[in-house]
């Protein structure tokens, strides 16, 4: 895997005690990892640029969490190397990365402010800077009123907000977030999304994994799709969708079920009432599709559209695995309204 953070700036760029945005490149180069006979990572490669949101998606067990743990030094790779600014990562440089683990890492019986202050100092901030950062992030994430509460007394959504504050409190040069949106209500999702966009605008590279592909598609500049420890598709969302094979939406209310099944170069990808989504092979005749639909009666809708990220995920990862993911509204049956 190669994760590269290109130097950058933007609003809020700079440095402060223990942290600071901007900096050199973060590279995870040729990393592989085995657990017994199971290959968790197999020479995966991708990059994350400064000021970019990168979505890291795959089915359960694909290797996403292992990759993130190796970046942070929680797990040791069997092969390959993690570097920052051209040099192997040290404890000091890893302290400058913000990490949100999948299993979370808060002390349930510690008070929110006490815990964040402690974690900020572990990352190198002095007492005064830590207090300022705790105030800033608890206010920004909407948990200021719960600063004196024990973490275990918070709702799961508020615990998630505190966990994000713990990843941000030291002004990290990069963010590595494992399932940051898990368990959040829509309001909390909006808050989390806005904060990640702010970090992107400030020049911070952000890597996050998620099973909510509609959210990944909406937020991310680029996406990497992982299967069995390998990166099998990677690039800007629009480019991935453009190379995912053309879809054709046909609404033929009087056509019988299966009207398109025998057409040359045509694959039925989904049905929703009278609407059918077709995938056309290169060179397939869309006018032949239109004639077949018209043979049964009027056609109310006939237009191309690009596949959604969820449909692309199904194509890349394989039939049946997409059911493990939250594919978002209007995506599960392969029928949607245009490109959006």
| Mean pLDDT across residues | 82
CATH topology of the largest domain: Rossmann fold
Placed side by side, the strands forming the largest sheet appear as: 6-7-8-3-9-10
| Global Rg | 23 Å
By CATH, the superfamily of the largest domain comes out as P-loop containing nucleotide triphosphate hydrolases
Overall CATH class of the largest domain: Alpha Beta
Dominant shape: elongated
Helix/strand/pairing category: alpha/beta
- Integer tally of domains: 2
Q: In CATH terms, what is the architecture of the largest domain?
A: 3-Layer(aba) Sandwich
Uncertain regions spanning at least 5 consecutive residues: 1-19, 319-340
Major sheet details: 6 strands, mixed
Determine the fraction of residues in helical runs and give it as a percent range. Answer: 25-40%
- Distance N to C terminus: 31 Å
Number of helices: 10
Helix-strand pattern: EEEHEEHEHHHEHEHEEHEEEHEH
Report the count of strand segments.
14
Strand content: 15-25%
Oligomer class: single chain
Enzyme class: hydrolase
GO molecular function, one term: ATP binding
Organism: Frankia alni (strain DSM 45986 / CECT 9034 / ACN14a)
Domain ABC transporter: 26-253
Characterise this structure.
The chain has 340 residues and is of the alpha/beta class. Strand 12 and strand 13 form a beta hairpin. 29% of the residues lie in helices and 23% in strands. Strands 6-7-8-3-9-10 form a six-stranded mixed beta sheet, with helices on both faces. A four-stranded antiparallel beta sheet has the order 2-1-4-5, with helices on one face. A four-stranded antiparallel beta sheet has the order 12-13-11-14, covered by helices on one side. It has helices at residues 64-72, 91-94, 112-122, 127-140, 156-168, 186-201, 213-219, 237-242, 286-294, 309-317; strands spanning 26-35, 38-42, 53-58, 79-84, 87-88, 97-100, 174-178, 206-209, 222-227, 230-236, 247-251, 266-272, 275-280, 301-305. The protein has two domains: 26-236, P-loop containing nucleotide triphosphate hydrolases (Rossmann fold), CATH 3.40.50.300; 246-305. The model is unreliable at 1-19 and 319-340 (pLDDT under 50). Helix 3 (112-122) crosses helix 4 (127-140). The two termini are 31 Å apart. The protein contains ten helices and 14 strands. Residues 7-21 have a biased composition (Gly residues). InterPro entries: AAA+_ATPase, ABC_transporter-like_ATP-bd, ABC_transporter-like_CS, DrrA1/2-like_C, P-loop_NTPase. Keywords: ATP-binding, Hydrolase, Nucleotide-binding, Transport.
């Amino acid at each position: 895997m190669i994760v590269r953070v290109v130097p950058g700036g933007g609003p809020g760029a700079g440095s402060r005690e223990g942290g600071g945005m901007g900096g050199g490149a973060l590279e995870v180069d040729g990393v592989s990892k085995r657990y017994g006979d199971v290959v968790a990572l197999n020479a995966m490669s991708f990059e994350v640029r400064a000021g970019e949101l990168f979505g890291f998606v795959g089915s359960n067990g694909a290797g996403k969490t292992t990759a993130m743990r190796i970046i942070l030094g929680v797990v040791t790779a069997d092969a390959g190397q993690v570097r920052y600014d051209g040099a192997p990562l040290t404890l000091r440089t890893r302290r400058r990365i913000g990490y949100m683990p999948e299993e979370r890492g808060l002390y349930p019986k510690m008070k929110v402010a006490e815990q964040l202050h402690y974690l900020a100092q572990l990352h190198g901030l002095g007492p005064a800077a830590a207090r300022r950062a705790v105030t800033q992030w608890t206010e920004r994430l909407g948990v200021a009123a719960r600063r004196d509460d024990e973490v275990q007394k918070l709702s799961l959504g508020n615990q998630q907000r505190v966990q994000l504050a713990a990843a941000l409190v030291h002004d990290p040069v990069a963010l590595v977030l494992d399932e940051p949106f898990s368990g959040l209500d829509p309001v909390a999702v909006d808050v989390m999304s806005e904060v990640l966009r702010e970090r992107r605008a400030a020049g911070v590279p952000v890597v996050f994994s998620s099973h909510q592909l509609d959210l990944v598609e909406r937020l991310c500049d680029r996406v990497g799709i992982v299967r069995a420890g390998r990166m099998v598709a990677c690039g800007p969302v629009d480019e991935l969708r453009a190379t995912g094979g053309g879809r054709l939406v046909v609404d033929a209310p009087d056509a019988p079920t299966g009207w398109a099944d025998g057409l040359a170069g045509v694959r039925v990808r989904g049905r929703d009432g009278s609407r059918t989504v077709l995938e056309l092979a290169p060179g397939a005749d869309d006018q032949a599709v239109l004639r077949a639909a018209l043979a049964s009666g009027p056609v109310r809708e006939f237009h191309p559209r690009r596949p959604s990220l969820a449909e692309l995920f199904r194509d890349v990862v394989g039939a049946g695995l997409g059911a493990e993911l939250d594919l978002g509204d209007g995506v599960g049956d392969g029928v949607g309204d245009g490109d959006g």
